[in-house]
Amino acid sequence: MKVKNIIKYVFAAFLMLQLSSCNSNTDAEQLFDKTPTERLEVQKSELNDALLASEFGWKAVYFTDNTVLGGYTHLFRFTENGNVEMASDFDDDTAVYKSEYAIQLGSTVSLVFTTKNRIHLLSESDNYPIPALRAKGYLGDFQFLYYGQENGQIIFKANRNNTEIRFVKATAQDWIDLPKNLVTEQNVIGGDSRPLFRLLETNDGTTKHQFDFTFSPVTRFAEANSIETGFSFSYEMGVGYTPTGIIVSPAVEVGGQKLTDFVYNSTDGSFTATGTGGVSAVIKYTDKPLVLTDDYKILLAGQATAAFGFYPDDYTMDATTNSALFYTELERINASLPAGQEISSVQLYFNHSLGNFIYYTFVGRSALFHYVDVVADNTGKKIILKHKSWNGNTTVATPAFLANFDKYLMDPNGLYVKKESFRLVYTNTVYTFASSTSPFRITTWKL
Amino acid sequence: MKLLKYNKIAVLALVSAFSFSCAHEDQPTDSQLDFTQPTKTALDNWIDANYFSPYNINVQYKWNQNTVDNSRFLFPPTVEKVQPALEIVQTIWLKSYATIGGADFVKKIAPREIVLVGGVNLNSVGTRTLGLAEGGQRVTLFETDYINKSNRANVTEFIHTIQHEYIHILNQHKPFDEKSWKAITPAGYTADWYNYDIPESNELGFITSYARSNINEDFAETAAMILIYSKAEYAAFLANIKSATALAALKAKEALVVKYFKDAYDMDFYALRDEAEKNTTSVVNN
């Protein structure tokens, strides 16, 4: 082809391009009938209208991270001028406070609590419940991304970690009842008079399973591990308080049903979640350890000398296996001693050359020997300690300042003895002694 | 036809294409964005009158995720705490510099934005970040919720932050004599400064432990600490130093700070210190 022809074709092509451009044909499929900006503006006003629409505001149980922490109930009432009134069950202060909020555009439309209020307590770097959350507070957020509405609820996701938060319409009663969550908190922790052992029992309609249940009040988090041999299963759940019980997240799944709402029974201190078709889950107390061991046998006659010690100024004092009643009674001993005197150890000796005895030592006064007989209860897997004498004198009465404490160890129904699997810093084995009729449990090192 | 003719036709076609195409384009209408300004509160008006208009400094106290580190667990200040905090900054920092450096000094060299954060910025090693200065433009002040105006130690710690950050901003405008500074206590700088007690660092010639992180922090700490000490307190501080080399180092650093203020900004550093002391007392007593 000649150069001239090439130029001709190029011109022709160029002309065609020119003439066919600026075609106003916009047949491309329109997914939306509004521009992105318009849609965002619509979303913004939709969210603001929804927030303002509920007469008594909104309620949200905020589980900031249900793998380590529980839920914190918040009540919000939004007003036209950008103010919000808020109350929460984060701590004892359930009063209503006022602050500001805004609908902001970030990665999407979001609700932001722009000045400090109760919800920010979850996001305070130097207020954290456990060392693992140091500098992270309670992992909370207060910028919630808007994800629409469903069944009258507003769905948000936390900007920080994408946790879902659902705003449910609040009632006038919700505002009145909020302080009751604190009562529930105490019920979940359990009073000093409640039995020591707790379990989660699930029923899928035909089979029952039992799980050892422990609850950490600082994190509002519970763990339940199966106690049945050959059935290894655990539940971990964050706990949120309601006026009548608890809400858990993630749900306890039983027989394919997800149970989240547990109702409190004040008579026996239990919490029950009921599904359909006989499915249920119950958190309840028991007087008996879930698993009975033969650990008591090393204390019986004919065995080697065994000694156990509890020391108030050492790591045995911090053991979580000591019960509240034990601490109370320990305090009572010191309170009834003269100034300058206090208890410094409680030691238990079995099959010693001097016999079987509890050895109490003190700061500022001489030690006491409480000689006992050891009786085995092989069916109940317990030992019973029977009083013989104080310092070898069979007629002298129990010293008044020790009487309350000592009577738990002398429980006529016996003591459960357990070799624990954990250590308290040192390599010594840890043993606990628990009264079988009251929530008294002491933690010792095997000496 | 000759090539020339084609050219003519082509040019004609081009011209007509340009002039007729896209003629039906819609004219822009109003913005689709909602640009209505939020209603200003009494606090917003106070900030406008005391910071924005006189100094061209914007104060952000409402949460804005773009001005804070989202990986930290922080929260915005309580509204009632904002004005007291700003009044402290205004009296002790802005007024002191205005008196000594001239009315326009801070207007010319100032952070253009102050961000207030209510909570503590705790680091994973256990230290607290009290303030940040970014690019000479923005100063972030933490812990504004915990300010107690009647407690001198508390006010001093808060004002320490802004004095410290402002020294950084001054340094970002005109550098100090880094070469001479580096030569004074070259061995004392360390990344794990927080593992040392302050008296221990004092005996090495550093005014605080944080000063040991690097020479920039050392300069800012030295200047800021002298500014928040009263004349008598600083003299007592020096009198307590046991090591002669440490004392000499501290004095050499002080001299460099004084020289920097004179050379770079023609300011009498000691006069500035006295003014700050006077204003601190007036804040605590009122």
Automatic annotation (TrEMBL), chain A:
Source taxon at top rank: Bacteria
Secretion signal span: 1-24
UniProt keyword terms in alphabetical order: Signal
Keyword Signal part of the UniProt annotation: yes
Protein name: DUF4302 domain-containing protein
Organism encoding this protein: Flavobacterium hungaricum
From TrEMBL, chain B:
Name under which the protein is recorded: Substrate import-associated zinc metallohydrolase lipoprotein
Species of origin: Flavobacterium hungaricum
Top-level taxon in the UniProt lineage: Bacteria
PROSITE patterns on file: PROKAR_LIPOPROTEIN (PS51257)
Any Pfam family hit: Peptidase_Mx1
InterPro entries documented for this protein: LP_HExxH_w_TonB
Signal peptide, first to last residue: 1-23
Keywords noted in UniProt: Signal
